[in-house]
Amino acid sequence: MQRTVDLFYRFLELLLVLLLSGMVVMVFLNVVLRYGFNSGVTVSEELSRYFFVWLTFIGAVVTFREGSHLGIETLVSRLSRKGRITCMILVNVLIMLVSAIFFLGTWKQLPINATMHAPVSGLRMSWVFGVGMFTGGMMFLIAAERLFRIVTGRVTDDEISAFAGEHTIEQLMERGE
After folding, report:
1. Directed axis angle between helix 131-151 and helix 42-66, to 10°?
2. pLDDT tens digits, residue range 46-78?
3. Which domain holds residue 50?
4. Which of 78, 104, 122, 164 is 20 to 30 Å from 143 by CA-CA measure?
């Protein structure tokens, strides 16, 4: 099961690379065409904006899974193990709540976006903003899995230390920092 999950996140990372590459190619091509030939590809501006939206939201999921979001560890690092675990529980419950609200808000907005089309490409706007359901759902699942592991006592000391910002040099190097 873990192998399937890892493959899924590898796919998301590849998708992020493709989205970023697509943005770079479209924007670069448009700049060259505008300044070199006084023309341009009108759909590239719109698509690069949409790619950026998807890149941001999919990147948030990957970053959340890796535990790479910004955090304020000043208070948490001063707490005992029990205090850190309590904070981990509270944080994951809060993330689940916000993710559920985000998912449901996107779900309610979807019928409106499905009737609207992008001005240049004609793409349904539900394809653009529907990524909110993916992001909200995935972040909810990640937080729920973490909460389950914390409550059942399966959280490791390394995870608790990382939550408190106590990374070793090896851990930082492993994450590419």
Report:
1. 0
2. 899 999 999 999 999 999 998 877 777 778 888
3. 2-175
4. 78
